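step 4 of 6: structure.
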Amino acid sequence: MARKKRIGREEGRAYWMMVLPALIVYMLVLAFPIVLSVVLSVSNYNGGKMFGGEPWQITGFAKYAKLVGDPLFWNSLKNNLYIVLISVFGQLPLGFIFAYIIYRKTVKWPGFWQGILYVPNIISVIVVAVLWSTIFSPNGPLGEAINSLRQGAFHAKLALIFTDPTSLVVSDDLVNKLLALAGPKASAIFTNPPSELKEFLMGYSPNQVQQVITDLTNMFAQKWTPAFLGKPDIAMLPILFVTLWIWTGLYMIIFLANMQKIDVQIIESARIDGANEGQVMRYIVVPALSGTLVNSAILCIAGSLSSFSLVWAMTGGGPNHVTEILAIYMFNNAFLGRPDFPLANAIALVMVIVSFILIGITKAVENKFGGKGE
Amino acid sequence: MSEEITTTVLGRFSAAFAKILAYAVMILFSVMTIYPIFWLIMNSFKPTREFQMSQLGFPHSPTFNNYIGKFGAWKLGDFDKLIPNSIIYTLGATLGIIVLSVLAGFAFAKIPRKATAAIYASFVIGLLLSVQSLLIPLFLEVNILGIYNTRLAVLLVYVGAGLPMGIYLATEYIKGIPTSLVESARIDGAKYFRIFRSIILPMTIPVATTLAILNITGIWNEFALINILVSKTELKSLPLGMYRFSGSLSSDWGKQFAALTIGTVPMLLFYIIFRKQITQGVAAGAVKG
């Protein structure tokens, strides 16, 4: 009897010694912040020492009311939902397609493609953000590439006009053709295009045809300036694109691993019975992966609602709050200008609640449409 | 008969078409993935002036000037401080996550206790919760605890953030180890810690590896949390250091690219060496249905 008791005590002690370290850290990092958030969001605490500093008290739900009335809140919620949508309906299908192509051995070297498409996941989001915002910047390589294509095309058109590549003969006919090609750009450069262009051409010696073509290309070829991140109505597009760019490979890996668990014989016998590739996908692979798909959607939702770093490093929420997402909206309210910690904490809770609601919807959809489908 | 021939010919034709399409898709997306990274590294060897003239061409005469020297990215970005910090945070927090997870996982899986159901469930709920949404309360909490601007705060938060996944994977894994092993050791009078050390721990190496892989890349690249936990250069990690190059230093492209390359290459090498383990670990870590 005594021995049994002693063993029981040892059991209890061992259990708690093993569980408590993890539980304490977990409480400190997840549970306590949530409680703190709940308390502060209904208080008037505004910086300074929390205990023993300026007194603060519970004041009610005023901050939530303020939140609902703030157009910036709705704007950032909308942007977050865009990111959720591109994640669930972009990353997942695309990742599925990649995984399926590799799984069905439609392409050779499965490890190679897999290895490459996963690379963005191991690079810091900060690097990715700076890299792509450089690419999308007005003076970035995208502009350079497209403009060099345009200049090439314009160059070719000019070469058709200057039929004799060795001697330059300036005629009214030539000037008119050039002006027609240049379009409105000519009147933007010259006040009186026909005579001034003619004068300009007379400045060259007859054997300088190539030089003329080059100079005219530089002068008249249309230039395109990419300014995605600076234009309010399209500033979210690069962010959504990069969101796809980074995480699609992750879902490819997850899907592929789960596809490889499917019994190969099922697919082979279906093929022998005359099922085509589309039917194999629809009736065998998709049902087998439905659980994985739902869990991936949940992963996507939870991740994209709290995402911060990518947008922070790409646009910082700008220009003028257009690309602001909830996490940045929260960050700005807490750290920018006059801190409003209660409001920031209310936003934190809204983020948690919205993500639980979306996850709930996903689970409900799963239940409605037969879930595992096995 | 002839109809059958037509269908097989058609079938072959569409199969060939599908193959071409599949290769086109894979090549297109692979180029889109790799080329920007290659472009980044390539441009880090160009002087900024040359970059402004030609962003797409190869460097005329590759130079290390963006990296080295008094005003090179290495010095300017304090990388000599950032890299050791990143290593400390990554290894420290990863080790912490593994140890705490495997310990608690063993208790949850093999020591029968009424409390387990509730505690374990609370960890699993944490899987759905992203610590990033708690940036502000966490910032306030580390200030209450007086550990703002300390390595302890960073390690604590990273370990806490990794625990739900760690505990979940470790517990499920240890549940798969036959209970009879534990029971017979108990009958022989072994204490739980001894059983843990000599029986369970060696058997959890696969799940520990998975956890290491999942956490090493994640923590090495983490930005949002550490951004609110430390402000001293001596405590900053690589992503924080690289972020500096997106703001005030961003007009000096050459150095910016050099800084980004310094931050990227270690993980790229890690990936090249452990690619198989990483992709397997990621697949195993994706919570199953």
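step 5 of 6: annotate
 - Chain A has 17 helices and no strands.
 - The domain at 62-138+232-368 of chain A is CATH 1.10.3720.10 (MetI-like fold).
step 6 of 6: archive
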